[in-house]
Amino acid sequence: MLEGREAAARVRVEGLREEAARLAEVLEAAEIELDRRVIAREELVEALAVSAAESTAVTEAGAQRESAAPAVPLPGSVVPPWRDGLQVSVLAPDYQWILGMLEKRRSAGEGPVMAREIAVQLGLGTTPAKVEGLRSKARRLAERGWLLAETSGAFSAGRRPVAVPDAGSSA
C-alpha cells in the first residue's frame, strides 16, 4: 500500500515538473514579447521627439518670416505676437473662438470676464481641466497682445503691440 502511494506521488511530482518546465517556456516567451514591446515604445517615443523637434524648428522658422501667414491655421499652432494689420485668421480655431466671444461682449458693452465664464459661454463647461486649458490660451493671447488681461485675472477684448522676443516660446 505504501509503495502504491509512493509511485502515485512520483507520477504526480513528474507531472508537476513537466508543467513547471512548460510554464517556464511560456514565461520566457512572454518576457521576450514584453522586452520587444518596451523597445518598440522607447523607439517610438524617441522618433516622435525627434519629429517634434524638427517640426518645432520648421514652425519657428516659419513664424520668423513675417511675410507669409499660414492659410489655414492648425490646432496647436503658434500664436504670433499681434501687430498692426495681422488678421485673427492666422490663429488656431480655439484662439479665434476666445477672441470672437470677447469681441461680442465688448460690442454689447460688457466688461472683462473670468476664464470660467468664457468656458461656459463657449460651451466647454466648468470642469477644472477645461477652465485651466482655456485660461492658458487666454493668457497666451494676452502675452502676445491679442487681448487684454486685467490684474484681477479677467480678460477683455483689445489689442496692444508687444515686443517680439528673439527666441521665445512657440506654443
Arithmetic mean of pLDDT: 81
Determine Rg (CA atoms, Å): 30 Å
CATH topology of the largest domain: Arc Repressor Mutant, subunit A
Taken as a percent bin, the fraction of beta residues is under 5%
Derived structural class: mainly alpha
Total count of strands = 2
What's the main sheet like? 2 strands, antiparallel
Helix-strand topology string: HHHHEE
CATH homology superfamily name of the largest domain: Winged helix-like DNA-binding domain superfamily/Winged helix DNA-binding domain
Largest sheet, spatial ordering of strands: 1-2
**Class of the largest domain in CATH?**
Mainly Alpha
Percent of residues in helices comes to 55-70%
CATH architecture identity of the largest domain: Orthogonal Bundle
How many separate domains? Answer: 2
Shape: elongated
| Uncertain stretches | 66-71, 167-171
Q: How many helices does DSSP assign?
A: 4
Terminal Cα separation, in Å?
Answer: 82 Å
Notes on the protein architecture:
There is one protein chain. It is elongated, with a radius of gyration of 30 Å. It has a two-stranded antiparallel ribbon. The termini are far apart. It is mainly alpha-helical and 171 residues long. The relative contact order is 0.10.
Set out the fold topology.
Blueprint: H1 2-64, H2 93-107, H3 115-121, H4 128-143, E1 147-149, E2 155-157
Antiparallel strand pairs: 1-2
Helix pairs in contact: 3-4
